[in-house]
Amino acid sequence: MTRALVIGGTRFIGRHLVTELLNSGYEVTLLNRGTHENPFAGHPDVEQFQGDRTSGATLDQAAETVDPSVVVDCVAYYPGEVRMATRAFSDVDAYVYISSGSAYGPDHIPKREGETPLEPCTDEQAVDDSHATYGARKAEGDRAVFEAAEAGVRAMSVRPTIVYGQYDYTGRFNYWVNRVRERDRVLVPGDGTNIHHIVAVENVARAIRLVAEQGVAGEAYNVGDHEVLTLGGVVETVADALDRDTELVTAGGRELRRLSDGALSPTAFPLYNPTPHILSTEKLAALGWEPLSPAAAVERAVEWTGDPERDPGPDPAATRQVLDRLD
User: Fold this and answer.
1) Dihedral-angle region of residue 288 (phi above 0 means left; psi in -120 to 50 means alpha; beta otherwise)
2) Do 175 and 162 form a contact (C-beta atoms < 8 A)?
3) 250, β-bridge pairs
4) Which of 66, 148, 232, 316 could form a disulfide with 155 if both were Cys (CB 3.0 to 4.6 A apart)?
5) Are 218 and 232 found together in one domain?
6) Residue 67 falls within a domain, yes or no?
7) Per-residue pLDDT for 249 more than 80?
8) Together in a domain, 42 and 156
9) For residue 131, what is the domain's CATH number?
């Protein structure tokens, strides 16, 4: 069987990716520090190489010891880490870097690989750890992939938009699942037509495997659900999956601020984006990518009742106040 090395692999995207690879006949080695519980402990086709991915020596040792055919880098957050990895794994059949839709600069609709410019990244931004530089750092990681490909490495990147599904530790999608599960009336910012393209984690895992197997060196591939939902559509799809008769109550920015006595703004709500964010997935589809529909993916996602590590969203008391005043 083909041996895949997954850098990360125990939390969210990596966890689903390992399952995808196992179901596709791969043997898998996880490279991580061992600080998170390993859900694949004891699995006969999964091994663990413990070490720090930010260490070049660790990556070199993993390359020699594991001798992988495929490497998927789920936790490269700095361009220097990507450059280090593409050097260590320069002779693998495929190196796939998990980038982000945040790597894009202008708000093109839709954002296309090779057409929509990427965020610029200064030397200072490349080593900064703030959320404000996340997109710039991911964009520079993409450039590191392109440089490696020019040097002969079969390196590629996958750019997912916001990812949802089981084991999502960010809590962004789970915020809306909990609102629908617990309440008959759900407050949605704006008029419900705001669009921030999202993607099921199963679709991301399929995309990563497909790019590793069939992608072209030096290319990036967007990944987002085939059907683009509005925020209101997301909430309605969640309600359908939970078989809940949910009323969506909408309020624009001024109304939110007025009715909440200044406590709420639209951007406090997860998945809200003031401008449409849509990724073209034509390039990925051309490889034969067959994604789950949002309805099918959301049905899977709401089955998870675990607690995310993060708890985003507006102040609950303020949202209740707005709902009461709109009743």
Assistant:
1) left
2) no
3) 188
4) 148
5) no
6) yes
7) yes
8) yes
9) 3.40.50.720
- Cα dist. 161→111, 197, 277, 281 in Å? 11, 6, 9, 11
286 inside domain: no
Measured between alpha carbons, how far apart are the two ends of the chain, in Å? 60
> Any bridge partners for residue 7, and if so which?
31, 73
Do 192 and 205 share a domain, yes or no? no
Residue with tokens 């392109």: 146
Give the domain CATH number at 248: 3.90.25
Instruction: List, in order, residues 6 or more apart from 226 with CB less than 8 Å away.
Output: 281, 285, 291, 293
Give, as one character, the DSSP assignment of residue 188. Answer: E
- Are residues 205 and 234 both part of a single domain? no
Residues 176 and 97 in one domain: no
Read off the pLDDT of residues 110-119 as tens digits, 9 standing for 90 and up.
Answer: 999 999 999 9
pTM metric for this prediction = 0.97
Note the pLDDT tens digit of each residue in 164-198: 999 999 999 999 999 999 999 999 999 999 999 99
Distance CA 290, CA 284 (A): 9
- Give how many domains the chain has, as a whole number: 2
The values of phi and psi at residue 146, to 5°, are -65, -40
Contact 26, 68 (CB under 8 A): no
Q: What residue spans of the chain are helical by DSSP H?
A: 13-23, 56-66, 79-88, 123-126, 134-150, 172-182, 201-214, 231-242, 253-259, 282-285, 294-301, 316-326
- Structural domain of residue 321, as residue ranges? 172-196+227-276+295-326
Closest by CA to 104, choosing from 138, 75, 80, 131, is 138
Whether residues 268 and 219 share a domain: the answer is no
Asked whether the beta carbons of 281 and 289 are under 8 A apart, the reply is: yes
**C-alpha–C-alpha distance, residues 216 and 232, integer Å:** 37
Q: At what angle do helices 294-301 and 201-214 cross, to 10 degrees?
A: 120
CB 102 within 8 A of CB 134: yes
Please check whether residues 102 and 217 belong to one and the same domain: yes
Q: Are 46 and 24 members of one domain?
A: yes
